[in-house]
Amino acid sequence: MRLLLVPALAVIAVFALALGALFQYSLLAFVPGSLRTGGVTLENFRGVASPQYLGYVWDTVVLSAATTVLTLLASYPVAYALARTSSRAARSWLLILTLAPFFTGAIVRTYAWLLVLGNTVVTWPVPMLFTERGVLVGLVHFSMPTMILLLAAALSHVDPAYERAAASLGATPARVFWRVTLPLSMPGIVSGSLIVFAWTLSAFPTPELLGGGKVKMIANAVKDLALDSFNWPGAAAFAMLALGLTLALLAGVGRLSAGWHAE
Amino acid sequence: MSARLAVALLLGFMTLPTAVVVAVSFNPTAIMSFPPDGLSLRWYANALTYPQFQRASVNSLIVTAGATLVALPIGTAAALALERGRLRARNVWATLLLSPLVVPGVAAGLGFLILAASLGLLRSRAVLIAAHVALVLPFVVRSVWVSVANLDPMLDRAAASLGATPWRTFRRVTLPLLRPGLSAGLLFAVIVSANEFVVSLFVSNRVTEILPVAMFTYVVNYTDPTIAALSSLFIGATFLLVWLADRLFGLAAVFLPDR
């Protein structure tokens, strides 16, 4: 029975080999105009620590934080409706509408926002396309299905009897929400926010197309270095940084959720 | 009532881009206007006859079919081992198998590109398919694992005690009972692979690129509604798949526990 795990581990080994190659290149010297590399060096990481690249990291963190907050606010009502509706048909429709953009690929969705944020549908009072505002709208839209599903799963664990009990003891609906529903759904809020934040840190197609080269996040800078400048070692160092940030964050999620399950 | 309105508005926000894409795809002119001043199917004809899209569609079919055919049996075997293998540190193995999910696309993509270059495989689809297998595997393992966990091991023992060989037990008892998990795994594998973009962008060229990469290149270079037409076809197919999936095995059971 245990041997059945071997093929899957072989697949993971290939994946690990690719990440190993990435790590190796991040420590090799870049020879301009060539894909050959020089000797072992820390120069690539020094390059990543330059003001230009730290600026991309800062922009990425700010955009990801804003995306997380807005996504949380926009997803909570939908997740609540999804978890609490008693009609089977309504739940199916809410789920399909939530999942459909999740399953439509990133390019189709981003192209759609390209049309909406350009002045095709409405004329925007402020420029939207190729600005951080526009990228933010696209990122929130991109993150909502994930957040809705995580929040809905957490909310369906909250027994509605607690809400009814609070209401029967005279709490107003607002008070029931602030004192009962919201605190009980906190595990979903925290893990959903951290996952959305971590995923947005490595967002690529949304800032690439909606930012039009004017808004750059970490992944866009990696792509520019790797595929336009052919500086694979530099790109590898920056990609390692993105990988480290994401893993550190997700390790945080694991710790938090383990803590909650232990309670 | 205002809560309902808020939910409706938010769902509107989520579906708005899709609606706009479909509307624009019937636009008669290359200059996009909304609402369109007439109806035309010329962009659909354009999308279906554009040679690079045809080539990319064939590549997509090869890569997605290849990755799914490899990942489905491997993931199913892994799910069986995880649930029934009496493994020490089962969570560690599970985390390892699900780990490709959390690696940023550009890191995995550049890693596979460097690996392909060092193996002299830059022009082949092998690396592309290998990358897709790794990216799709977590979804297969998770979906099938749920089904294996719900399976009563007594049924296997009953079949064995009635004289069935282990293979016959697997074929006639275990596999049919795993059908819901296998269907969900298949659906996820196809959708994730068909839509994979970032890693594919790094490890493919004009000859081997799959449809999302070809669409990205087109969007960067041209502004006419051809992509809107192609996107509409994509959206239609996805909607159909999700709706079918809901009909066949109830999405609520997969995504909302305890219901």
Rg of chain A over CA atoms, rounded to whole Å, is 22 Å
Specify the oligomeric state: heterodimer
Quick one: biggest sheet of chain A?
A: 2 strands, antiparallel
What does the main sheet of chain B amount to?
A: none
What's this, in brief?
The complex is a heterodimer of chains A (263) and B (259). Chain A has 263 residues and is mostly helical. Chain A has helices at 6-26, 43-48, 51-84, 88-103, 106-117, 132-155, 160-168, 173-184, 186-201, 205-210, 218-228, 232-262, and strands spanning 28-30, 37-40.
Keywords:
heterodimer, A: 263 residues, mainly alpha, MetI-like fold, 12 helices, 2 strands, globular, B: 259 residues, 13 helices
Please characterize this protein's 3D structure:
The complex is a heterodimer of chains A (263) and B (259). Chain A is mainly α. Chain A has a single domain (42-238), classed as MetI-like fold. Chain A has 12 helices and 2 strands, in the order αββααααααααααα. Chain A has helices at 6-26, 43-48, 51-84, 88-103, 106-117, 132-155, 160-168, 173-184, 186-201, 205-210, 218-228, 232-262, and strands at 28-30, 37-40. In chain A, a hairpin with a 6-residue loop joins strand 1 (28-30) and strand 2 (37-40). The longest helix of chain A has 34 residues, at 51-84. The radius of gyration of chain A is 22 Å and the shape is globular. Chain A starts with 5 loop residues before the first helix and ends with a helix. The model of chain A has no long low-confidence stretch (mean pLDDT 89). With 259 residues, chain B is mostly helical. At the A-B interface, helix 1, helix 3, helix 4, helix 5 and helix 6 of A face helix 1, helix 3, helix 4, helix 5 and helix 6 of B.
